[in-house]
Amino acid sequence: MTHSFNRESPDRTGPGGIAKRPSHSPADSGPETIPPPLPPEQGDPLWMFQGPQGLRAGWSILLFVTLLYFFANVFGTLLSSTLSGLHVDFADQTAGSSIAGESAWVLALASTLVILARLERRRFFAYHLAGPAAVARFFSGLVSGFAALSVLVGVLAWGGWMRLGVASHDHVQLVRHAALWAIAFLLVALTEEGIFRCFLQFTLARSLNFWWAIAAVAPLCLWEATHPARHGAGGVYAMALLGFFPGLYLQKSKSPRSGFWMAAWVSSTAFSFIHTGNNGETWVGILAAGAIGFVFCVSVRLTGSAWWAIGCHAAWDWAETYFYGTADSGYVASGHLLTTTPTGSALWSGGTDGPEGSILVLPVVLLLLLALLVLYGRKRRHRAATTLAEHTVS
């Protein structure tokens, strides 16, 4: 998975006479935020830019993309100049090159979120980075990601669709590569989860309905249809179609939670979309990227933060690239513990895409979702019931 979103309290008034928004039950809302000013009345020029929850989602996303790419270029240039001045030159597809490239994106993302948090009057960690037991959630995600990928590789080896071998490295090199790839994929996870499950999911969930979700998903499909050089476009179409009827049902039922699930549909489809620029991708691999992106959205809903998703994402990629030495989204990197060779039909083996391109990845993703529901679903229901009881008593 590597690429190249009540209960009212009494009215209160903040500093300067600015009225604060009603508070919400922790069971129904995300991390605590700094309430934005009351929105201007319709007819006021600012009405187009500011809504009931602050800066309108569309403008927020546009500003986010602009700032992210601006800072990515700035930090990328600074890091490149620094490494060049130190005469450090990393070969392609190595842990060092990945760390250098992803560091610029992480710095860019952090800078962008700091600015947007100030403009939207939120805390930095409000973008799905706050929540109970964040460290435990992160390590639980690490274990889950490694276990899920190991199950997939084990099934492929058992079925004869993959041959495993041992790479020839000395022990010092093995430890060094293991540590460097761990850093690299933690940065990858922070970047991708920070964009899709933190900012995008949080922002879209604020005001997205079915028709706006269609307006967001349709251009992604149109782009794929008009750019035949992209890889695995069928996976994007499949993600768009899979969310259509559930989204329509939520719209018709007027579910109060529909915003979150509409956002999950859009962010997961977008997550599959960005992977179609990778060489070696297949429609199964692209669909798998979107499907696991949706699982990560579910984890945000169940755990209250994106830390489980960050850990799972990092461990999945680390196991795929370093531990088992398979292709990852079409790329085969250097410096890995084991070696793998796909055999037989690409539909079963994954071919050039790696294990993510095997049709068997889909039941593994489903298994990961079920494990997540078993692990955290009951805890969330218990937490919601406890919170409701506390509010009832008070």
Quick structural summary:
This protein is mainly alpha-helical and 394 residues long. 62% of the residues lie in helices and 4% in strands.
How would you portray this structure in words?
The chain is mainly α and 394 residues long. The chain has one domain. The protein is built from eleven helices and four strands, in the order ββαααβααααααβαα. The protein has helices at residues 57-85, 95-119, 134-158, 171-204, 210-226, 233-253, 258-274, 283-303, 307-323, 346-349, 361-393; strands spanning 50-51, 54-55, 162-166, 338-342. The strands form two sheets. It has a two-stranded antiparallel ribbon. Strand 1 and strand 2 form a beta hairpin. Helix 2 (95-119) packs parallel to helix 4 (171-204), helix 4 packs across helix 7 (258-274) and helix 8 (283-303) packs parallel to helix 11 (361-393). The radius of gyration is 22 Å and the shape is globular. The termini are far apart.
Shape: globular
Q: Specify the structural class.
A: mainly alpha
Q: What fraction, in percent, of the residue positions are helical?
A: 55-70%
Fraction in beta strands: under 5%
Main sheet makeup: 2 strands, antiparallel
Number of domains: 1
Alpha carbon gap, first and last residue: 46 Å
Using DSSP, what is the number of strands?
A: 4
Strand order of the largest sheet: 1-2
Which oligomeric state applies? single chain
Radius of gyration: 22 Å
| Order of helix and strand elements from N to C terminus | EEHHHEHHHHHHEHH
Q: Spans with pLDDT under 50 lasting ≥5 residues?
A: 5-34, 385-394
By DSSP (H or I, 4+ residues per run), the number of helices equals 11
Q: What is the average of the pLDDT values?
A: 85
